[in-house]
Amino acid sequence: MKLFLIPIFSYIFIAISNADNKECPIMVGDEIDEEEVVEFEGKKVYFCCTACVKIWNKNPKYIIKAMPKLLPQFDGMEEKLGLDKVELLEQRMCPVYNERLVTPDSPTIEVKGKTVHLYNKSALRKFNKTPDKYITKALEEGLLPQLPGNKAKKG
Known about the structure:
Blueprint: H1 2-17, E1 33-40, E2 43-47, H2 50-58, H3 60-66, H4 78-81, E3 108-111, E4 114-117, H5 121-129, H6 131-140
Antiparallel strand pairs: 1-2, 3-4
């Protein structure tokens, strides 16, 4: 049995080590799962889970433009992909789950007359329970550039 597992683990390791993106471009910092992969413009893109694949499938060009450092397989393809036509939100990350990317398709709420995007409906529910807590923390972390009082993101 042990000898059987060695080739399987070797295959998994090789698949992950050959991936152009080493972490999920949506749940930033999460490890990729070699089974959660899509092909886009001839390039493989790996994700941590099915939820991220679904988000990718709604707006891949937005994610490529928003997270270029996490998707090096698309370097030099900006013109071919028409990324100049993709308009990025001012805000990149969720104020509740601050390591998760938001997109134009993400749920929104109005705060101080400005639109704030949240990662998903769960984040929206959490935000609505204690909005001041999340706004204060997100402003401190520089996550809400569309709001007054946002601290510059260090980095």
